[in-house]
Amino acid sequence: MSKMRRSERIVRLTQILLEQPHRVLSLTEMADKLASAKSSLSEDLAIIREVMEAEGLGTLETQAGASGGVRYVPGLRDDLAEEFLQDVAQNLSAGDRILPGGFLYMSDVLLRPHVLDMAGKMFASRFRESGAEYVVTVETKGIPLAVSTAKYLNVPMVVVRRDHKVTEGSAVSINYVSGSRRIQTMSLSRRSLPEKTKVLIVDDFMKAGGTAKALADLMREFQVEVVGVGVFMSTVDPEDKMIDNYVSLATLTEMNEATRQVAIEPGTYFA
């Protein structure tokens, strides 16, 4: 392999790091792959770290030892996160988004690739020290959000189903009361989660917290520890949720069907 120019090597290094967040990459292996000396790579990585931190993209952490290593830790500056959520709030605050029954139509915004990417990065940044080994979500619109979060944490994702599927094998099922006060069922295959692991729960919307609490209850059936709960949007009412210590990116503070008024503010992420 011919020797790369420094500019080309930095681009290749950046690509490798961004594609494998939270994975420790051996400097020796990367030096062999890029046909470069480890001393040269160390200088390149210092430049990449400086730019990442300046642009609010996260940082690089080095690992000492005989072989040495480096890992990319995704992050997002608060000012960039606030700017992102202000744009989301503006898009979701239109009165014509109020649906009969007091629901807010969010699908078109929540499923935009840019929104999913930024939200996933924000959750991964907030919960990066939680030790989460899996991201868990329920079979709803929150699945793409959980995928994005799992990507930036570099962990597998597990989907809890509304109805048990024969192809899932034996499963654990529980009944719970949803935010709309309806009794619903959720189930999870016994093969989905190893016991004694740690999970992060991610969902798109939380009102009273019934679904999040049911997910936490289901995790206890698997002897799994819930290390965090992240929701894209929560409501200000009811104030007392069925689950504590959740992180929301945005808070729905007002939704008046009569006046067609919608008000959204930053969530507990900035608390």
TrEMBL record:
Protein name per its UniProtKB record: Pur operon repressor
Domain Bacterial purine repressor N-terminal: 5-74
Cited NCBIfam families: purR_Bsub (TIGR01743)
Protein encoded by which gene: purR
Domain of life: Bacteria
Organism: Tumebacillus amylolyticus
InterPro entries documented for this protein: PRTase-like, PRTase_dom, Pur/Pyrimidine_PRTase, PuR_N, PurR_Bsub, WH-like_DNA-bd_sf, WH_DNA-bd_sf
Domain Phosphoribosyltransferase: 117-261
Family membership: Belongs to the purine/pyrimidine phosphoribosyltransferase family. PurR subfamily.
Protein keywords: DNA-binding, Transcription, Transcription regulation
Subunit note: Homodimer.
